[in-house]
Amino acid sequence: MFTGIVEELGEVVAVENLGDASRFRLRGPVVTEDAKHGDSIAVNGVCLTVVDTADGEFTADVMAETLKRSSLGALAAGSRVNLERPMALGGRLGGHLVQGHVDGTGTIVERTPGEHWEIVKIALPAALSRYVVEKGSITVDGVSLTVVDAGDDYFTISLIPTTLDLTTLGIKKAGDPVNLEVDVLAKYVERLLGRGSADLQDLEEIKEMER
Question: Are 105 and 11 in contact (CB under 8 A)?
Answer without folding.
Answer: no
